[in-house]
């Protein structure tokens, strides 16, 4: 790595030039796709209708549907993409490249939706609502990973913690007859698994990725075992009461944003509070400064009297509690009963969202929304019978993560001491 | 251990007074004892790990029985007795399912009936069958470990390899088996190697951490394979679910013994283990690969290419995982579905850790895990204890093997510090 560091100057420049070129070509490809592929086989005066008011909404406000001419929209999007791509190739956008990338991708996604809805009516608000719901557990997972990794402990056991949280939430919630008790139980068990991770990684200095893998396998095994052994015969233990929807009085009446963010159950509101707390805590308090110091340079932190190991224990256990609570969403907030392997890799997407969001809470939430959107779109398009292999949509988040990790599009940086055990000597 | 003994000193020579008295002459028996001791100490951690896992597994079995607590209140002694009996029955069924029933062997051999003898050997055959893909994935992960790479992506590489091998298996027709089978096996290897090439080249070129890339590629592979399985020409005619056409019989691994399911894939796995062993410890490339894994800066200073070793290790690792895929689709299922692997790639991690990345140790570790897998189904049908117990046992085994300090703390013994694992998680981005 030293050789790379020594020649950092020219590499940065070359990377910027390469990025400019990659983006320019990428925008032109999107323009071509919108202009030639999406418009093929479409009637010239077909219109796409997007429903913006959720079905069964009781608000007095009348939100009109968004109706656009399909082909014209695509040509407009193609024009926009082509123009931005040309500018990008000729002179670049400098530091505003991320904004431009966002605009182009958003425009293309809109063109794509227009194509999917051509001649039909599509519930855009439904997709957006589903996006938030799909992003919710991913964000919890990402926040869990973030809490651990900011203190220098890699947590790839998020998946196992989510799964165990879902499982515990269902059993404890059913046994107690109260979802709040289930939620508390899920948080506790998540914290317990995290404590195991912390002991293995910090006390026994086990490789953190192996420790995380152990917990993932253990969680899959034990939940599957107990689900088969107990829940199959005692179904009453797998029927927890779910948290009810609590629309927030005024905010839920806001068009589009209201149904998306302000008429959900307590998980979403808890998530907002958590994002705010972690963001404020990490970047504006003494606690956050210390945590970040431990994650970046533990020896320096130790020198000024911060207890490195205690900070790591605390953060990992906190992260486990967050993941456990997030896992409980699967049973207490969403479906209502535990199914084996129901988290289906959401924890790993959370890990990806944490990286994509550059180890910040708000970034992680936005990244989770992107991943949730891919998930929601796939679910809705398969209902609409769109002739597009859904597998490619589902692959999207993973490929995007690889691109981000490989630094093909501007690199994100992990805490410097992430994954390294700390020795006083 | 014997190498550390101080050299023998001639008794006639004058020795300084403060020097320790020379130890009694190492007689051949002592040497043998010392060697045995060394081997035993190497085995101590894995054996204790398995033992501890089974003990905790017993607790899991007892505590997950809701009636146990009721009975414990009424008559603690009897409740404990039945609980222990239940654990014994479950582990007994697991063992019989994995290794066979001793009385069945005796009866079968006494009767002299070939069919009956074969029937008695079914459990062993099933264990070998289950161990075959595990040897390959264990080797795949171990090869990565030796180069300092953590390949969590064996699962995805297995899927891609199996998909490629299946394609050759049904698309090529009219070939004799000695042409067709090797072709399909090579296709599986290439498919896995191609999937392993991606994290290798990304790590070498951009420094992207292989753990995160291989995790993402696992999910990409599931989706890609899901798409291919529904592709016209690959999907079986008349089916709407994702399943491939049936491969030609000429591409199947022939059975070791007609009538039993264990097949020549196992022999290929053994050969692969010896090939990997030779490659790592006897060839120049293998030496470079281990040198990079042991100390990358030193290896670079000695003129070795870290990038080339990284890419080579990931491709070979992926190829071995692809061979694991062939051992399933050409040896067991004979067609490709999305459910061909119950996590062979992840078991490979456990096996590589347990064998400390030594190819020959992997054979034994894989046989152990294969036995657990093979025994879990008979156990579930005989005692109603879910087969997922085996997954819990596996997790516990890895935990104990990867943290020898844990074993040391529990059993108050001295065990070697090294486990063959390094710190892999050196930060995601760099």
What does this protein structure show overall?
The complex is a heterodimer of chains A (425) and B (430). In chain A, helix 5 (124-150) packs antiparallel against helix 13 and helix 7 (179-203) runs antiparallel to helix 13. Chain A has a three-stranded mixed sheet. Chain A contains 16 helices and three strands. Chain A has helices at residues 2-6, 8-37, 70-90, 97-116, 124-150, 158-176, 179-203, 208-231, 257-261, 266-284, 286-296, 298-303, 308-335, 346-356, 361-384, 390-405; strands at 47-51, 66-69, 121-123. The longest helix of chain A is centred in the first third of the chain and has 30 residues, at 8-37. Chain A is mainly alpha-helical and 425 residues long. Residues 1-11 of chain A have low confidence and may be disordered. Chain A has two domains: 14-119, no CATH class; 130-405, ABC transporter involved in vitamin B12 uptake, BtuC, CATH 1.10.3470. The two termini of chain A are 24 Å apart. With 430 residues, chain B is mostly helical. Chain B has a domain at 132-364. Chain B contains 17 helices and no strands. Chain B has helices at 28-63, 66-74, 76-99, 102-111, 114-120, 122-146, 154-171, 177-206, 210-229, 265-282, 284-294, 296-301, 306-333, 344-354, 359-383, 389-402, 404-411. The longest helix of chain B has 36 residues, at 28-63. The radius of gyration of chain B is 25 Å and the shape is globular. Residues 1-25 and 419-423 of chain B have low confidence and may be disordered. Chains A and B meet through helix 8, helix 14 and helix 16 of A and helix 8, helix 9, helix 14 and helix 16 of B.
């Amino acid at each position: 790595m030293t050789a790379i560091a020594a020649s950092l100057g020219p590499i940065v420049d070359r990377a910027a030039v390469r990025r400019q070129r990659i983006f320019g070509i990428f925008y032109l490809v999107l323009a071509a796709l919108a202009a030639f592929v999406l418009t093929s086989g479409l009637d010239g005066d077909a219109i796409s209708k997007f429903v913006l008011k959720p079905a069964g909404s009781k608000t007095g406000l009348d939100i009109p549907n968004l109706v656009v001419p399909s082909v014209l929209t695509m040509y407009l999007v193609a024009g926009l993409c082509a123009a931005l791509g040309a500018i990008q190739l000729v002179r670049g956008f400098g530091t505003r490249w991320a904004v431009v990338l966002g605009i182009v991708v958003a425009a293309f996604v809109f063109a794509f939706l227009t194509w999917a809805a051509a001649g039909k009516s599509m519930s855009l608000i439904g997709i957006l609502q589903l996006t938030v719901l799909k992003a919710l557990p991913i964000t919890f997972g990402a926040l869990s990973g973030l809490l651990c990794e900011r203190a220098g402990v890699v947590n790839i056991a998020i998946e196992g913690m989510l799964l165990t949280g879902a499982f515990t939430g269902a059993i404890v919630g059913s046994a107690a007859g109260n979802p709040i008790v289930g939620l508390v139980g899920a948080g506790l068990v998540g914290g317990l698994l995290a404590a195991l991770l912390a002991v293995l990684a910090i006390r026994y200095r086990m490789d953190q990725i192996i420790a995380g893998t152990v917990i993932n396998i253990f969680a899959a095994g034990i939940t599957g075992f107990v689900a088969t052994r107990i829940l199959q015969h005692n179904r009453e233990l797998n029927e927890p009461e779910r948290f009810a929807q609590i629309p927030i009085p005024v905010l839920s009446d806001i068009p589009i944003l209201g149904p998306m963010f302000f008429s959900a159950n307590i998980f979403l509101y808890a998530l907002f509070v958590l994002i705010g707390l972690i963001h404020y805590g990490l970047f504006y308090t003494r606690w956050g400064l210390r945590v970040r110091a431990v994650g970046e340079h533990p020896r320096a932190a130790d020198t000024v009297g911060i207890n490195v190991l205690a900070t790591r224990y605390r953060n990992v256990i906190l992260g486990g509690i967050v993941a456990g609570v997030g896992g409980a969403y699967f049973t207490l907030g969403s479906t209502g009963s535990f199914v084996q392997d129901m988290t289906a890799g959401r924890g790993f997407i959370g890990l990806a969202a944490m990286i994509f969001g550059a180890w910040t809470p708000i970034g992680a939430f936005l990244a989770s929304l992107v991943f949730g959107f891919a998930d929601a779109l796939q679910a809705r398009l398969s209902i609409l019978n769109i002739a597009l292999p859904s597998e490619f949509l589902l692959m999207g988040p993973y490929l995007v993560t690889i691109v981000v990790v490989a630094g093909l599009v501007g690199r994100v940086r992990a805490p410097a001491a992430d994954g390294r055990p700390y020795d006083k000597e | 251990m014997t190498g550390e003994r101080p050299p023998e000193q001639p008794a006639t020579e004058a020795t300084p007074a403060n020097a320790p008295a020379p130890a009694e002459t190492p007689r051949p028996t002592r040497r043998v004892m010392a060697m045995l001791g060394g081997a035993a100490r190497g085995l101590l951690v894995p054996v204790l790990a398995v033992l501890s896992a089974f003990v905790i597994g017993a607790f899991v079995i007892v505590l997950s029985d809701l009636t146990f607590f009721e009975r414990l209140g009424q008559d603690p002694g009897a409740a404990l007795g039945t609980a222990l009996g239940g654990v014994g029955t479950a582990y007994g069924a697991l063992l019989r399912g994995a290794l066979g029933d001793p009385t069945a062997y005796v009866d079968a051999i006494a009767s002299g009936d070939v069919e009956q003898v074969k029937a008695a050997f079914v459990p062993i055959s099933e264990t070998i069958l289950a161990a075959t893909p595990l040897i390959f994935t264990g080797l795949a992960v171990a090869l990565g470990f030796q180069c300092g790479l953590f390949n969590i992506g064996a699962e995805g590489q297995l899927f891609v390899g199996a998909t490629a091998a299946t394609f050759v298996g049904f698309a090529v027709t009219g070939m004799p088996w000695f042409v067709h089978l090797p072709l399909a096996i090579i296709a599986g290897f290439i498919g896995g190697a191609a999937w392993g090439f991606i994290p290798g080249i990304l790590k070498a070129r951009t420094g992207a951490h292989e753990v995160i890339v291989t995790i993402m590629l696992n999910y990409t592979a599931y989706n890609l394979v899901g798409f291919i399985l529904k592709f016209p020409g690959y999907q079986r005619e008349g089916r709407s679910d994702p399943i491939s056409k049936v491969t030609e019989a000429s591409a199947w691994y022939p059975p070791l013994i007609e009538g039993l399911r264990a097949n020549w894939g196992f022999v290929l796995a053994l050969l692969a283990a010896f090939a990997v062993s030779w490659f790592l410890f006897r060839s120049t490339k293998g030496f470079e690969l281990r040198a990079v894994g042991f100390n990358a800066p030193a290896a670079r200073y000695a003129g070795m290419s870290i990038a080339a070793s990284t890419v080579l290790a990931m491709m070979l690792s992926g190829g071995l995982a692809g061979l694991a895929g062939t051992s399933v689709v050409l040896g067991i299922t004979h067609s490709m579905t999305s459910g061909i692997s119950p996590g062979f790639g992840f078991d490979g991690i456990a096996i590589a850790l347990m064998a400390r990345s030594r190819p020959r140790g992997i054979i034994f570790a894989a046989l152990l895990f294969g036995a657990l897998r093979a025994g879990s189904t008979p156990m579930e049908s005989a005692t109603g204890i879910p087969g997922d117990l085996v997954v819990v046992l596996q997790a516990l085994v890895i935990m104990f093997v990867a943290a020898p300090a844990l074993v040391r703390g529990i059993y108050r013994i001295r065990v070697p510090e090294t486990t063959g694992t390094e710190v892999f998680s050196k930060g995601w981005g760099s």
